[in-house]
Amino acid sequence: MRRLGLYLLLGIGLVGFAYPFVWMGIATFTPEAEIPELTLLPSRWTLEHYRLVFERIPVWRGLLNSLVVALAVTASVLVFTSMAAYALAKLHWRGRETVFSLILFTLMIPFLLLLIPLYTLVVRLGWTDSLLGLIVPFMMNATGVLILRQSFLTIPRDLIDAARMDGCGELRILFTIVWPLSVPALVTVGLLTFIGSWNEVLWPIIVVREVQWMTLPQLVALFAVGGGAEGQLGPQLAAAFLLALPIVLAYLFFQRYFIQSFATSGLKG
Amino acid sequence: MPERVTKNRRWRVRLREAQQGYVLVAPYLLHLSVFFGYPLLFAFVLMFHRWDIVTPMEFVGLKNFWRLMRDDLFFRALLNTGIFLTIHIPLQIVVALFFAELLNRPLKGRGFFRAAYFMPVVVSGVVITILFQQLFAFDTGLINRMLQALGGEPVPWLVSPALAMPSIAIMATWKNVGLYIVLFLAGLQHIPRHLYEAAELDGANAWQRWWHVTLPMLNPTMVTVVVLSTIGGFSLFIEPYILTGGGPLNATLSAVLYIYNQAFYFNHMGYAAALGFCFAIVIFLVVLLQRRFVETDTWS
């Protein structure tokens, strides 16, 4: 009896968290007039909403832009942040502790303080309306340094010394010895960076005004706010559903990594 | 002599290691100085100027700050963030603790439930906001339709100035709570069994065990929830941007949305920088106070 109650409560939670997504998915194929109805399934299925979305916003272009930005940022964060984290964890040099404190300090500064000056910098560099403006400011990441440094610290020093004896350079040690031993941390940093970049919308809205350089979240947000959807619910929900789809699919396959990564960043914060 | 040679060699190895250290950290530091250091310093320049990006900057001293002291919208944004946080933080803690406690019992399919609750965390805020725009709609929204089907009155979720910000707080809780369920669950699973056994020996009942063992042991997670939620509250942007545009009657104007409006609708870059600075100070003070009052030292 108690077990039943437990599963009942968990089931209510399940409905609460998952049902809105299911409802949204179905609504995108429902004729506009029927969307507000409480009935689960529509009287007929329609692709009308998707047709309008693809007609009004360059979905594929937005997807491509988002993908290029997120991949470039993630690759750069993994490489450069690893280098910094390795130098902080495994090498001895004067000023190391100072640099580490400086990186911790950058974590304490709220982004809203930097928002306007960073924007003016991007304007001066001539990077508005380009993917550079979306990529370069986020090529490094302090949280990434923390997570990777923590992981690199656990790698035995003997291993690194042995590689040095064999004449390995530090970069080679980092990428051929340290990286394979730090896969979980790299996955965490990579995933967090990718999702963060993919979901970012404030910065693109500020920096990009030309449709051809807009990322998908930005296109979808402007589609919902502007008149693109002609005040119809269906197309807005369809656009949102398209935006959610890649991440939700990835999540269904790799949810354990997702949860692990977000939990790690939560504990760091 | 050999002694000396090895010493010399070791010194050289050290030197090489130090050089490598600088080389490896250099790209990071270069990026940090351009995209963090420079904007940080420039923020302090900008906030004493009037600037619309097109014409040259004009030094105005403390004018931006005097203006800010008399700017109702600045205080309105602070009040809105306060309203958001007073609803969001307790709601988040209660809901997260509730589900974490449920999931911490012996049961089948824990991973499945956990994954389902966590899903909104990874999905873009844009998606969640568009979804809730429909759920919260007054006439056609799913929630009001359900309420009416159950014989209730429709609630003006986003239309009423008194309810708009609480509605956004509920939405934000729904989006984020999965993360805190996971963190609380991890916290619960790390509480050593013997603490409960000891409490039981001392004659503590279930409620007392929860209050005196579980709650204090979860304090670090509690601090995380409070601090992250606070930072999140101050950086609300896309939610009011899509749902309400800051309305009705500025009831959902958030800090970032106000900075955005000042900078990009009115081209007041200097004033927007001053706003950013003052909001940042407020965040610091609030987080400091929260740490002071929420953080206990049971752990140290």
Question: What's the layout of helices and strands?
Answer:
The complex is a heterodimer of chains A (269) and B (300).
Chain A: H1 2-27, H2 48-56, H3 59-90, H4 96-108, H5 111-124, H6 131-135, H7 142-153, H8 157-165, H9 170-181, H10 183-199, H11 202-207, H12 216-225, H13 233-268
Helix pairs in contact in A: 2-13, 3-7, 3-10, 3-12, 4-7, 7-10, 8-9, 10-13, 12-13
Chain B: H1 2-46, E1 49-50, E2 58-59, H2 63-69, H3 72-103, H4 110-122, H5 125-135, H6 142-149, H7 161-189, H8 193-201, H9 206-217, H10 219-234, H11 238-243, H12 255-264, H13 269-294
Antiparallel strand pairs in B: 1-2
Task: Describe the strand arrangement of the main beta sheet of chain B, using strand numbers.
Answer: 1-2
Residue share in helix of chain A: over 70%
The overall strand count of chain B is 2
What general outline of chain A do the C-alpha atoms trace?
A: globular
Query: In CATH, what is the class of the largest domain in chain B?
Result: Mainly Alpha
CATH fold topology of the largest domain in chain B: MetI-like fold
Structural class call of chain B reads mainly alpha
The first-level CATH class of the largest domain in chain A is given as Mainly Alpha
CATH superfamily of the largest domain in chain B: MetI-like
According to CATH, the fold-level topology of the largest domain in chain A is: MetI-like fold
What is the helix/strand order of chain B? HEEHHHHHHHHHHHH
CATH superfamily of the largest domain in chain A: MetI-like
Beta-strand share of residues of chain B: under 5%
Strand content of chain A: under 5%
Shape summary of chain B: flat
Kindly state the number of beta strands of chain A. Answer: 0
Major β-sheet of chain A, in short?
A: none
